[in-house]
Amino acid sequence: MKEKMVIQAGWVIDGCGGCRRDQSIWITEGKIEKISERKEEIPSEYECIDAKDKVVMPGLINCHVHCLNAVGLPGDAADRLTTMERAYWGLRNLQAYLASGVTTVRNLGTMKNYDLEIKKAVESGLIEGPHMVCSGSCICMTGGHGWKSGLESDGVDECRKHARQQLKAGVDLIKVMATGGVMTEGVEPGSAQLSEEEMRAVIEEAHKAGRRTATHAQGTEGIKNALRAGIDSIEHGIFLDQECIDLMKKNGVWLVPTLVAPQCIVEAGLEKGLPDYVVRKANLVKDAHVDSFKRAYAQGVKIAMGTDAGTPYNFHDNSAYELELMVRYGVSEMDALVFATRNSADCLGILDQTGTLEEGKRADILILNENPLEKIDNIRSVWMVLKSGRPVVKKA
């Protein structure tokens, strides 16, 4: 493969809200050199990708995944996987992200910081996968949501200690658990868990080190605790009231709604062998979740795209479903694409590197057979994926 290439595109969706016809994207050493009208002659040193009948856009960015989680296994088989089996599923899942057009993921929680290890394998070229932003293990209260794979922490000092340990381990951000959730037995989604003071200690340590923070936050009180503590992104945001929305707008906090997570559980139901308590809680939160998302969107809360892939029947190659649900609930196709590209890069703090098709940025590019602005599920019509200017997926 040549170090220089040019993509001759029929349409370019730039990630900033624009769409232009008949453009050429010039790439040198993995970065976008320029974008021009498709008229210039192509010098011999450039490899040409003929996409004159296709749509070119930034690669998708999924801001909330659990990339080592196996999806669709019967019963509790996923909980009993060996370390080697988890590594196998991690490799398989990362390949699924690329194949579905996702060039960057933010992993938000895994046992024993395994995501940091698989990220090293990707960055060294040992395995193929998207760019990764990783939180390692989450910080939760003893017995709280996520305790099986998290760092159980009680009190300000213990939370601060674990935050410093995670920073020492090399995490890109820190995730805290503000509320209960659907997947942990014995806790409820609406209940507050880590206190405002406990989360503030974690957030202070992260921000001192130049790292961002995210929180699993479903119930109203826990969301407010996290917002007052200075959190950077609210994951799920199921029970938002007006005060939550006002605080998010005032403080510039991101919402990563993960609409597909309860939706996939509800669709699978008891028939697929899910525990009663999981199905009950998913049904409990689903309508409130949709209502909160609609109100946040209507009022201008900053929204990024994430799926919580790795939860039951929430497959790693199905990021498109999140965009389809957004559009079903009133989001324009263009806004949905911006949420999954520019906004997601901004949420992760990497907008200077990727997320839009602009000069100087990484050539993380998705080429589609059909236009998602005409119908959002055309986002599934993947023809080619480039990561840092290198084709990693090519379909017939």
Low-confidence stretches: none
CATH topology of the largest domain: TIM Barrel
**What's the CATH superfamily of the largest domain, by name?**
Metal-dependent hydrolases
Mean pLDDT over the full residue set: 96
Number of domains: 2
Strand content: 15-25%
Major sheet: order of its strands?
3-2-1-4-15-16-17
Q: Assign the CATH class of the largest domain.
A: Alpha Beta
Taking the sheet with the most strands, its summary is:
7 strands, mixed
The count of β-strands is 17
Radius of gyration: 20 Å
User: What characteristic shape results from the CA principal axes?
Assistant: globular
Give the structural class: alpha/beta
What is the architecture of the largest domain at the second tier of CATH? Answer: Alpha-Beta Barrel
Helical segment count = 10
Account of the protein in words:
This protein has ten helices and 17 strands. With 396 residues, the protein is an alpha/beta fold. It has two domains: 4-59 and 356-394, Roll (Urease, subunit C, domain 1); 60-348, TIM Barrel (Alpha-Beta Barrel). The strands form four sheets. The chain has a seven-stranded mixed β-sheet with strand order 3-2-1-4-15-16-17, with no helix packed on it. It has a five-stranded parallel β-sheet with strand order 10-11-12-13-14, with helices on both faces. A three-stranded parallel β-sheet has the order 5-6-7. The protein is globular, with a radius of gyration of 20 Å.
